[in-house]
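User: Can you predict the 3D structure for this chain?
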Amino acid sequence: MKTRLKPQCLVWARLRANLSTADLAKKVGVKEDTVLAWEESGQLSMAQIDRIAGATHTPVGYLFLNAPPVEKLPISDLRTVGSIGVSTPSPELLDTLNDAMRRQDWFREYLQSNNAHPLDFVGSLTADQSVVNAASKIRQLISWDFHIRQARNWEESLVKQTEAIEDAGILVMHNSVVGNNNYRPLQVTEFRGFALSDKYAPLVFINYRDTKAAQMFTLAHEVVHIWLGESGVSNLNQTRVGDTQNIERFCNSVAAELLMPLDDLKSQWQSISAYRDSVARLARNFKVSSLVALRRLYDAGYISESDFTRRYSDEVAQFAPAPREDGGGGGGSFYFTLRSRLGKRFISAIVASTLEGSTPFRDAYRLLGVNTADGIQKLASITMEAA
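Assistant: Here is the predicted structure, written as structure tokens:
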């Protein structure tokens, strides 16, 4: 028995998933002519509708609408290309954001059931404050000290900084794919991270497909969002002069001051400015990208805006993130990868709550992305070893 759908909804679902008619035909196991016929007549069986919904990662109910829906992010969309806002979020971004919000909801309820207090620092800043003072207030709770920046490499520095942020009460999650699906990569060109502000369970998410130096900046940027009490998705340009979004401009400026304080920069610049690789040396010392180092040199008045723009263009080709194949967990055991993706605070809480009987196993499976009790036991073992 055939069901008649609106052809424009079928076309919308395919384009939403960035698929050609040939791509979709391959995914659902039919000839391209069949897909073309579906999109002309709208007549399909329920089994075929289900296959299209799965292949395009589209809620099946959307295919039965009279017109394609207009999808919007459930939080502020602060992404821009140049000075123009980005429209039409991908299914990958939407699913990643919805997964994070479900985990945040669970963690908030968990904390409240255990009589946790709200976090005073969430929403304690305003974007009209001094950048230096704002960075100083964040440092009172989260260390961005010199010894963290002087870790052996960007990876170690990022791990240490993440631990310091989680210790302050902020969930930190990252991934380079949707959930555990390596066939659904997250695109850095679409977003680098997002912040979900909450008085009990603030959360930041970092696109792990980005370079380590870029992740360091995004992490700092999203933490500033939490201090502002402003949720939002960012594809932040870390270094351009004259960002168009007031909130993003403030978060960028405070993040730069956290990672590379002007006073520290000035004290180092005197001794290394004569070297040909002076910018690279600064980047290594502070564990930032060369682009951020250039921007801070401009902020400090050591290079002009025209010089900054020229050197920025020279550096930007080297800044493109390398494709990742491990899905964002650093390789090794799936469970170690999962713990890294979701953060030690969230994993520890949900494993403990599940094993003591407060959270049903079926809920834990959905929130963790595992499907057996043995998986939760393995996560419990990893958590105990790391404690």
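DSSP finds 18 helices and ten strands in the chain. The chain has a mean pLDDT of 88.
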